[in-house]
């Protein structure tokens, strides 16, 4: 028995010793039967909040939700939530009950059943006495765990009308546990999906949290398919419906698997295999081809004497990055998360071509120094592995090995000035000494100098000074328009070729 369980059991025993009923409730009971380690332990009791505080007067007891009958007891840095048996009143806003009815003065079995009846799924509506080991399972949660089925407590439509977020919780639990959704529950999802009303009934912040749980679950593909099948996808990410529309066709050579939606799910399945993954990474993977339908064009091409309809999606990475930003903003995600997600989308095509031997070393260094480089490497690998091409073709297209070797090589360069994150030999002070005034030209000169340093044009301070002297006239001759173009990247050589892979 782990420490958290021991403390929860001791707290329940202390309540029982004081004459109250006390049982473990909800997720921790479910997880025990699934052989999972619970994230936390909750206790349901016949004691009122005031009685709970009196029993635990020697502990830190916080009234975090006393109006709803909830007290949190902190013992040895473990938090245990203790809630009085309760029944919910009306749900006026479709999210939370307008009031609760504490059931501390009725028969404990009657109170337990009524408390269970207000919960969403049968697997979350069980209670367990940790002292005696007795299970209270009024709605068949244990049997549903054994059959790996999600079933509503009572009438599914009523459960959803009480709290619309429960619809997304069904999907998250299905993805997290690998359970199937019982037909009646599925029918209720499909009927009531439009009632979710994002931003009005259910906040986008809560939707984002549920989406995070789905994407980081052990079966994200199953969760996303359920979102699409239930109609919930149309409510939270309507852009995704285009991925199964008439413009979602892909190039038959690069993507024999079919639509952009099928490819996206295959890529997500590959990404889910990664040991290290974040919400930002998985959301970037999910959205990486979101602009394909909006950039799709067709052409005829003769291959081996046969006319084939080829498909192009030129510019979909750039368009998709802007769409990803808009989606992240709608979901109220942080600016950092938004940047990371949109950069995965924007960069995913370029990552297919950085193995070109003609690319300057300084460009590779700049790429490898990106804080999100591992996400980009994982994205490229998942993108090529998540297709219907042969295994040999997919493995050949993966640049994971190339990039990891490149990282090791650049980090261990024999010349310190050329290693990853090496200190710049040309500083702002050096530029100022050459007579340049602080301003946009400073950044232009410093970036050009750092690129020259990594390309091996100089390796020490003396060489840096000589390089700056040799190139000073060129920088002084730059116009304001040239400086601005340099800052926006317009004057820099294209790092990758835009070839036949623009469909990927």
**Helical segment tally?**
24
Radius of gyration: 29 Å
Report the sheet-strand fraction.
Answer: 5-15%
* Strand elements, count: 13
Q: Kindly state the mean pLDDT as a whole number?
A: 91
- Global morphology: globular
Describe the structure.
The protein is 48% helix and 11% strand. With 504 residues, the chain is α+β, with helices and mostly antiparallel strands. It folds into four domains: 3-140, Beta Polymerase, domain 2; 148-236, Hydrophobic Seed Protein, CATH 1.10.110.30; 246-411, Hypothetical protein af1432; 422-488. The chain has a seven-stranded mixed beta sheet with strand order 3-4-5-2-1-8-9. Helix 22 (440-454) crosses helix 24. Residues 490-500 have low confidence and may be disordered.
Structural key phrases:
504 residues, alpha+beta, Beta Polymerase, domain 2, Hydrophobic Seed Protein, Hypothetical protein af1432, seven-stranded mixed beta sheet, two-stranded antiparallel ribbon
């Amino acid at each position: 028995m782990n420490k958290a369980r021991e403390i929860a059991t001791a707290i329940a025993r202390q309540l029982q010793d004081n004459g109250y009923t006390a049982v473990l409730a909800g997720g921790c009971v479910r997880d025990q039967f699934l052989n999972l380690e619970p994230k936390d332990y909750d206790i349901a009791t016949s004691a009122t909040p005031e009685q709970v505080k009196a029993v635990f007067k020697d502990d830190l007891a916080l009234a975090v939700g006393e109006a709803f009958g909830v007290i949190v007891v902190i013992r040895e840095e473990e938090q245990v939530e203790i809630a009085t048996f309760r029944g919910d009143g009306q749900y006026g806003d479709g999210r939370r009950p307008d009031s609760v009815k504490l059931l501390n003065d009725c028969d404990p079995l009657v109170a337990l059943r009524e408390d269970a009846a207000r919960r969403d799924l049968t697997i979350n509506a069980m209670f367990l006495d940790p002292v005696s080991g007795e299970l209270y399972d009024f709605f068949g949660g244990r049997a549903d765990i054994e059959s790996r089925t999600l079933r509503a407590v009572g009438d599914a439509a009523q459960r959803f009308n009480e709290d619309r977020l429960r619809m997304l919780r069904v999907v998250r639990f299905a993805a997290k546990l690998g359970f199937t959704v019982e037909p009646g529950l599925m029918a209720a999802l499909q009927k009531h999906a439009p009632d979710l009303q994002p931003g009005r009934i259910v906040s986008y912040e809560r939707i984002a949290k549920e989406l995070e749980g789905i994407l980081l679950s052990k079966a994200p593909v199953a969760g996303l398919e359920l979102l699409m099948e239930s109609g919930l996808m149309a409510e939270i990410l309507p852009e995704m419906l285009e991925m199964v529309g008439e413009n979602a066709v892909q190039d038959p050579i690069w993507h024999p698997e079919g639509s952009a939606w099928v490819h996206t799910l295959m890529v997500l399945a590959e990404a889910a295999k990664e040991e290290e993954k974040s919400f930002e990474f998985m959301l970037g993977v999910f959205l990486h081809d979101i602009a394909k339908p909006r950039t799709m064009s067709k052409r005829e091409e003769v291959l081996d004497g046969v006319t084939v309809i080829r498909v192009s999606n030129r510019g979909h990475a750039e368009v998709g990055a802007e769409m990803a930003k808009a989606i992240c903003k709608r979901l109220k995600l942080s600016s950092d998360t938004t940047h990371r997600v949109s950069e995965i989308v924007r960069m995913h095509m370029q990552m297919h071509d950085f193995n070109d031997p003609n690319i300057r070393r300084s460009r590779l260094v700049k790429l490898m120094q990106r804080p999100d480089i591992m996400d980009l490497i994982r994205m490229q690998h998942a993108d090529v592995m998540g297709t219907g091409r042969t295994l040999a073709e997919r493995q050949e297209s993966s640049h994971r090995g190339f990039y990891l070797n490149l990282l090791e090589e650049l980090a261990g360069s024999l010349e310190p000035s050329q290693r990853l994150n090496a200190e710049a030999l040309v500083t702002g002070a050096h530029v100022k000494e050459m007579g340049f005034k602080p301003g946009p030209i400073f950044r232009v000169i410093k970036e050009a100098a750092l690129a020259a340093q990594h390309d091996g044009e100089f390796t020490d301070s003396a060489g840096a000074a000589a390089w700056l002297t040799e190139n000073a006239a060129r920088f002084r001759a730059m116009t304001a328009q040239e400086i601005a173009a340099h800052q926006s990247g317009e004057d820099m050589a294209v790092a990758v070729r835009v070839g036949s892979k623009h469909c990927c």
